[in-house]
Every structure is written in C-alpha cells, then in structure tokens.
Inverse folding.
C-alpha cells in the first residue's frame, strides 16, 4: 500500500476490494462475523451492509482527521472512531428492523474488532484524501458483503432449503441441518477458500 | 438467569465453546495454532486478558447504568480492553522477552480478538452477576485455549503428511476446525439443568 | 508525517498536551455523534419494541383490545415505567374491548441447547392456569429444538398448565416441571418432546422460574386488575 495519495484509479480503488483483495476469500480477514451470522442470506446481507457503513464512515473521518492525529495515539483514536460508528449502526438497526437486530445479536457490536476496518484505517485512510479512502473502503465493504452472501446463501439453501426466506424445494426437502450449525460454517468457508485457491493456482499455471 | 457458576463454566468450555460454537477468536485461532509452543502461551495470555476484561466491563457496566450512559458502553469496553492488552504486553516484554518475540504481532492483536470483547458483550447481554461473569470468562479462556491446543496438535502432525498444495493453509485449518466443532457438538447438553 | 529525516531541520515537538487535546477533541466529537443519533433513534426503537410485544401478546390473547404493562415486586403491583426495577417482574394485562381483564401475560427465560429460550405465557386467574405460550426468542437446532414452536402435542401441555398458588399466597402448590416424553401424570407437568428434551426443559424452567416469583406477588392484588385503570 503506497503512501502517496492516488489520483488516477479511483475506480480501481473500488474494484480492488471486491475481487483482488476480497477480505473474505483472499485475505481471510474478519472471520468471526462471517461464520457466525451467515446462517441465512438476509442476515449475511444485513451484516455486510452494517460493516460497510462502519468501514466507509470511519475511513472518511480518519482521512479527514489524518493530519491532526499524532502518530503515538493513532491506533487508540482509530478504535474510538470505529467504536462510535458501530454504536451508531447498532441503534440504526434497532430503529429499522428489530428482527435483523435479534438475528445479528452481539455480532453487531463485534464489528468494532473486525480486523478489516482497523486495517483499512491504518493502511489506507490515514494516508489518503477522503474520496479515495471512501472508495477503497466501499470496495472492501462490497467485497466483504459479497463474501458473506456467498457463504450465507449456500448455508441457507443447503441447511433450510430457502433463499432470503423463500422456499426453494418444497416440503419434501430434507434440510442438511449441519450447514446452519457451527461446523457447517467452517466447512462451507473452507470449501470456498479452497475454490479460490484453486482458481489462483490455475491462473498461475496458465500464465507461468 | 439462574445458572449456577459450575454450569456456566462447563457449558462455556465444552458445549458452548467460544471458538468452535460461538465463532469468537477465530483470527488468532487460525493464525497462531500452527505450533504447539506458541499456542499454549497465546491461550494463557488471551485467557488472562479475558478475565481482566470481564471484571473491568462488569464494573464499567454498573457505573454506566447508574448514570444512564449506556450508549458509551462499547467505547468504554474497547478502551479498557486495549489498555489491558498494553499492560500484558509490557509485562511480558519485561519478564519473558523470548515469549514476547515468539508471539510477535499476535500479542497486540488480542485487542481485536472478538473473544475478549465477546466476553464483555455476552455477559452484559445475559445479565450475569459478578460471579457468573467470572465463571463465564474463565470458561471462555479455557475453552479458547483448549481449542487452540487441540488445533495446534493436529496441525503439527498434518505438516508431516501429504497434502495437495491447493488445500494447504487457511482452507485446511477451517476444515479441521469444522471437524473439531462437530466433535464438540457431542458435548451438547452437558451441564444443563435436569 | 516523517520526523527525523535529515532535511527536516525543525521536527515537530511531541507535545503530550497536544496528544491529550487531540484525543479529547476526537472523543468529544464521537460522543456528540453518539448522543445525537441515540436521541434521534430512541422513539423509533421504543415504538418497534412496543409493536413486537403487542403482536406477541395479541397472538396469545386474541381478544386483547388494549395491553397495559405492570411491574410486580414484593411491594405489590404498579404501572410500568421504563425498565423494570431491580428484582421486579414485568407482566402484561390484556383487556378486551369492554375494558374487562381477558388474561395476563409474562415472560420466562432459561438456557436451552444453544442459547437462551424466551417464552411469553398467558395466565388466567379464574382457572389459576397457563393457557398458552409463544416462543419469542430461541436459537435452538432447526428441526429438533425448534419443534417447541410447532409440535402440537407439546403445545397442548400449555392449554391448562396448573400453576395454582397456596392459600397463604406465598408459593405455588407444585413447581412446573418438564418430564420425559410420555411420562406426564399431573396438570403441572410438561411432556417433553422426544429427542428435544433439553429445549423442552428450558421452556419448563423458564416458565417455572417466572411463575414462582410472579404469582405470589400478583395473586393478592388481582382484584385491582379486573377493570382497566384499576390501580390508578
């Protein structure tokens, strides 16, 4: 991550987080919420949007204040800023949908320790002007949400026969219950990572 | 809730294991579990921080509730945890520098360990009193260490076996974690009231 | 921010006052943001909670036209204000459209297989029994523990669950108890779901813990609740 502000390639900023540096599949970051809340696609989406909100807002604020935060206390300051936006999103979710709030539970507040956010603040937002910082954070957030959705959809389809609550297979479907339980989360994420590693290896072989 | 201390402890170590059932503390779990000799001190350090975090957040919560400042809870918790980790770091640097180097970046990362903040948040959400909170955090730390050590043991043995290249790394660790989680489901119901 | 480079002849002083000032400013800014959003969302959150509660109570007690919240404690019963005080138990009085008491409802909670199982139960003073339950929160295993919501035989347990109180109104005659599937003998027992004993027991324990505390406090003051606005 270079320290110079980027002018060209704001679009690149956005796309980087979605594919090349996808937080879930490539960097394997932020896994606690990934596994815990992805028992359904809707919950996955909710968590993804909430995390993106915190990512973007804290990146913008850190970027705006980047010349005023002394190096010595930067981590502490970033954490306070992130915790603030997490508290905000906690109240916003409660106000909008108590159902989602119940489903996500304590993991909303656990967004504050999601390594992605602190990592972005330290590596990028602190060294770039607000617009690229925002786009980069947005890209990461979208990538994260896509990762969560990939996981949530598979688990919901296999474990409950539904997608976003819509029944797919009818009454005879015997759900593969373990998929919506903790072991299933580990297995499905492991398989996705395996898939992406295989893709990367194939690319290497083709270009090598 | 009226669960007894022993019940809370046993349930948290086994059937409601922080890592394998509640998905807390995964980053260090997957990062530090490569070697047994780093897994053990990491487990101990994290357990200690969890205990301290539990005590401090209980006290903080009482204080914040009395003054109607619940909205500051998250910030207060995370600041306390960050401070506790700093203290542990300084302590370790002074009294055991080799260990400090061995754990490297993972020591300050205990701050962003969901397990530590998770202890504080879950004990508040469940309305545990002081005794229950301590049993919960002790159980949590022990469960985390147990999972970490088991994982490290398996991974060390796996290093000696033939594994396709694609499979190695995080994907493998997750599969292993899934199997461990499945095994721990067998503890389901242990300690729950008759 | 590079300090210490050879071209930089006047490095900025690491002023601890500056550190503290920045931290305080940031904290003040963040604190202000939180307070603002909190105040802005409080009405919506309270309204949401009320809607969810009323929906559950109405599903349990269809005739409910108006629901009034009360808190019961060792000192008696009083209309609810904000959160229940330490040791007090919240219950809900459902009045039909003529202002007569239809039934009462309260919540019980206990640890199940995965996490807390919360149930809302309905109580009728004239039969001194629980006549129905609604599960308001659970994270039990789908297909196994979640049968407590759908299993008709299990729900039948709660059509006339005996929770009668002794003459001196200090305790219940018999504790509510969940027994092994098929071995129910008495009106205060709950027949567990085969294969879902832990979750079934959680429901029983949650209800028992709640009624053991609530009913002895509630029974002496029932007359006040007969008509809407009785304790005002």
């Amino acid at each position: 991550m270079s320290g110079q502000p980027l002018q060209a390639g704001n679009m690149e900023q956005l796309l980087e987080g979605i594919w090349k540096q996808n937080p879930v599949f490539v960097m394997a970051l932020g896994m606690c919420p990934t596994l815990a809340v992805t028992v359904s696609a809707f919950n996955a989406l909710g968590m993804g949007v909430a995390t993106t909100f915190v990512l973007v807002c804290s990146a913008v604020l850190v970027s705006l204040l980047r010349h005023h935060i002394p190096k010595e206390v930067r981590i502490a300051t970033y954490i306070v800023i992130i915790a603030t936006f997490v508290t905000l999103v906690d109240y916003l979710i409660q106000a909008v949908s108590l159902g989602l709030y119940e489903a996500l539970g304590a993991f909303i507040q656990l967004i504050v320790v999601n390594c992605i956010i602190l990592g972005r603040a330290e590596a990028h937002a602190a060294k770039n002007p607000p617009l690229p910082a925002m786009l980069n954070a947005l890209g990461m957030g979208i990538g994260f949400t896509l990762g969560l959705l990939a996981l949530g959809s598979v688990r919901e389809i296999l474990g409950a026969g539904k997608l976003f609550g819509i029944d797919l297979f009818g009454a005879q479907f015997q759900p593969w219950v373990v998929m919506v339980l903790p072991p299933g989360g580990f297995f499905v994420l492991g398989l996705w990572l395996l898939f992406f590693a295989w893709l990367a290896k194939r690319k290497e072989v083709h270009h090598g | 809730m009226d669960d007894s201390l022993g019940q809370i402890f046993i349930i948290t170590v086994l059937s409601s294991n922080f890592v394998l059932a509640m998905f807390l503390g995964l980053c260090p779990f997957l990062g530090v579990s490569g070697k047994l000799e780093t897994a053990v001190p990491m487990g101990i350090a994290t357990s200690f921080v969890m205990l301290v975090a539990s005590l401090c957040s209980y006290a903080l919560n009482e204080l914040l509730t009395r003054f109607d400042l619940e909205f500051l809870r998250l910030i207060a918790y995370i600041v306390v945890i960050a401070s506790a980790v700093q203290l542990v770091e300084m302590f370790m640097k002074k009294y055991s520098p080799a260990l400090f180097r061995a754990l490297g970046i993972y020591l300050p990362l205990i701050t962003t360990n969901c397990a530590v903040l998770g202890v504080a948040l879950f004990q508040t959400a469940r309305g545990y009193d002081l005794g229950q909170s301590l049993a919960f955090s002790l159980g949590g730390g022990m469960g985390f260490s147990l999972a970490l050590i088991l994982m490290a043991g398996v991974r060390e043995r796996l290093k000696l076996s033939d594994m396709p290249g694609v499979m190695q790394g995080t994907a493998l660790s997750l599969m292993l974690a899934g199997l461990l989680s499945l095994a721990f489901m067998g503890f389901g119901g242990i300690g729950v009231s008759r | 921010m590079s300090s210490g480079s050879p071209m930089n002849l006047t490095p900025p002083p690491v002023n601890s006052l500056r550190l503290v000032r920045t931290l305080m400013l940031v904290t003040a800014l963040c604190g202000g943001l939180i307070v603002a959003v909190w105040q802005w969302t409080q009405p919506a959150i309270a309204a949401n909670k009320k809607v969810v509660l009323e929906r559950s109570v109405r599903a349990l007690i269809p005739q409910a036209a108006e629901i009034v919240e009360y808190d019961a404690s060792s000192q008696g019963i009083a209309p609810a204000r904000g959160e229940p005080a330490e040791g007090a138990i919240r219950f809900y009085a459902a009045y039909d459209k003529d202002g007569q008491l239809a039934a009462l409802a309260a919540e019980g909670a206990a640890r199940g297989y995965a996490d807390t199982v919360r149930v809302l139960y309905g109580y009728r003073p004239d039969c001194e029994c629980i006549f129905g339950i609604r599960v308001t929160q659970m994270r039990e295993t789908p297909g196994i523990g979640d049968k407590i919501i759908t299993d008709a035989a299990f729900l039948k347990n709660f059509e006339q669950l005996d929770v009668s109180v002794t003459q001196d109104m200090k305790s219940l005659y018999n504790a509510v108890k969940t027994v092994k599937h098929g071995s129910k003998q008495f009106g205060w027992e709950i027949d567990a779901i085969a294969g879902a004993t832990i979750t079934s027991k959680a429901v029983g324990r949650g209800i028992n813990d709640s009624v053991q505390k609530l009913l002895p406090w509630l029974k002496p003051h029932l007359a006040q609740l007969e008509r809407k606005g009785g304790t005002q």
The longest strand of chain A covers residues 162-163. The beta strands of chain A are 162-163, 166-167. Chain A is about 65% helix and 0% strand.
